[in-house]
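Lecture notes, unit on binding sites. The following record was shown on slide 14. It pairs a sequence with GN1.
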Amino acid sequence: MDLGAITKYSALHAKPNGLILQYGTAGFRTKAEHLDHVMFRMGLLAVLRSKQTKSTIGVMVTASHNPEEDNGVKLVDPLGEMLAPSWEEHATCLANAEEQDMQRVLIDISEKEAVNLQQDAFVVIGRDTRPSSEKLSQSVIDGVTVLGGQFHDYGLLTTPQLHYMVYCRNTGGRYGKATIEGYYQKLSKAFVELTKQASCSGDEYRSLKVDCANGIGALKLREMEHYFSQGLSVQLFNDGSKGKLNHLCGADFVKSHQKPPQGMEIKSNERCCSFDGDADRIVYYYHDTDGHFHLIDGDKIATLISSFLKELLVEIGESLNIGVVQTAYANGSSTRYLEEVMKVPVYCTKTGVKHLHHKAQEFDIGVYFEANGHGTALFSTAVEMKIKQSAQQLEDKKRKAAKMLENIIDLFNQAAGDAISDMLVIEAILALKGLTVQQWDALYTDLPNRQLKVQVADRRVISTTNAERQAVTPPGLQEAINDLVKKYKLSRAFVRPSGTEDVVRVYAEADSQESADHLAHEVSLAVFQLAGGIGERPQPGYKAAETTHNINNAFGPGTADEHTVPKQCCDGSRSFAKETRALKMRSAVASHRKLIMIN
Ligand SMILES: CC(=O)N[C@H]1[C@@H](OP(=O)(O)O)O[C@H](CO)[C@@H](O)[C@@H]1O
Ligand SMILES: [Mg+2]
């Protein structure tokens, strides 16, 4: 380690005084202008991690669904997964070290992790379309180079494409070719093979409207579309030619506001979907003939996928264990449907895909999705081999099912949730099963729900257990929530400190939108009173409703307030549900009566 060179170059990427950032659920995220030193230092850290693991490490420059002015960075571990937790701590230490402490921190990390400094290092870098991303990724490269690491800069990539590249490079090409062409070819070949097998189609034309959030997804989907055009025609909206990244569009906007994005004209019953800013999340939606908006979120995507996989396994005659992994945000109706109707075991983990991913790895086939549309399916190596064999050996119908499963396995991005890959999986399943978007939506009816956020002086006063569904501290909070939940039917509520913003999130679910709204408000008040609320008391009518563009994993001076956008009013999004869903809900409520109540 040339400590002199590190000190010299580090001074060119100086840390702003007093700024403290934390490696959160999705790496570092804050205003782009505060990130130069973090990028340089993550270049250094990626080299150490690469030396330690003797593998290629990825660095992705993106702030996903955050506003265009923000940016962020995260490291990708050898099998394309999120950085190991102990290294997240190193990342936080290194990012916050004062200039004079940099050498010591680097040596500390190397010693603690027994890094062989003589080992070669290789780092691959990708970035999204933000104006700040190119310069910031150059700072990553500076960090890599000064520690003597080799690198390959992929330039513009979606986040899951970078995860794919890392996975390919560390598995000797068995997973696929580590080029953008390799990615397009692997996925498209599997998709075209699958759709060729579809004899009937629920929708007359296989066409789909895609809102690309004015982000990288537009560029990559445009590059890719001719590879799979035989099986699907896509119409791109919010492709970055005029609108601002993530502004009033994208998966996060659609999910949290439960309304369509701007810039997309939707005719009734047309199938539409939205990507987020770095194309690792996807949600579907449509307008029914009465003009009502229907959202199909990650929970319903997981249901479609797992039921299809289960059917194929039955057809092949294989009894492999398949599990679905969700978080506490999963709609209660989805969990119930999966467990009681589909008879699939469901597990709940903490928020953040790294938790879901790890749990999903425990099954032969693990399907995981966050409600916001981030997820994928994982297949154990043994399953992949078994299915490959079956696709060669079995007869007729069974063989056809095994072949389908083989292609589906290739179509998933098993390194990370991937909007493009998930979109193709969903389109293939709908075509193969001859399902329309309405039929898919009708699998179950979501319980009305509400998400709010509350500002407190220090969100760390809230600690949770049981996959974040129960608050352990501050004292009295969980008891207060229990009492409130008892007042409503089919109700459930929980609170947790966000890992990406300086807020406490509140989630409530009940038999009607009014009840869910009331419960969420009352729980917000309990948080405000018992967990040190600051600013205005939560008001009914959702002044403190979830907004799309709030960030904060910063604790330092000049960070918290600066990055919190003014609270917006939510439009009570599901008001349409009041009249039109009354009927549907009655039957959902009736069937829920059989359930053991979570309250
Ligand atoms: C309720 C919710 O959607 N939370 C999101 C959000 O995490 P929070 O820890 O809730 O801020 O950002 C994460 C990273 O993108 C994502 O994994 C997660 O699902
Ligand atoms: Mg994202």
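Take-home: The pocket of magnesium ion (ligand 2) is lined by residues 64-65, 276, 278, 280-281 (CB under 6 Å).
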